[in-house]
Write the structure tokens for this entry.
Amino acid sequence: MNEREPQAPDESDAAPETAQPAGPSAEQQVAELKDKLLRALAEAENMRRRAERERDEASKFAVTNFARDVVAVADNLRRTLDSAKAPAESDAAQLKALVAGVELTERSLLSTLEKFNVKIVEPLGQKFDANLHQAMFEVPDTGKDAGTVVQVIQPGFVIAGRLLRPAMVGIAKAGAAPANPPPPAPD
């Protein structure tokens, strides 16, 4: 009795299995792409937040240099006021020093403004321009052409060519024509 022992199946006898590619499976590729997509979305969101934070900070501190220079002008004003209170000088000398200090401070302020591209509009003697001036009143009998700026109440300012504040002005009024022209002189 020669029973045959069951033999282990020979590899060559096995049914052929479907061949799998050597690379990652489709599910693995989908998982990798999904991971990459999520990372890209997270990075984009982080960049957006960072840009927003930087924009907010830039907005808050954009005037830092300007403010630093204006503080210097405030210091000059304080020194001027302090010197005006000095009791050792006569009233005339004290007033003269005060005026000189205020003029110096004004020049310093205008210089600081120009440094930041803010320029004063001094329209006296110019033709009225509604883009730069605000007419407050008309002045009759000035001897100037109608519409000429004859008085500046408050100067205007432009920043980088754009109006910041219009100059408040008084303009020459047109001479009124007589209501009844005089009759021609008889010969």
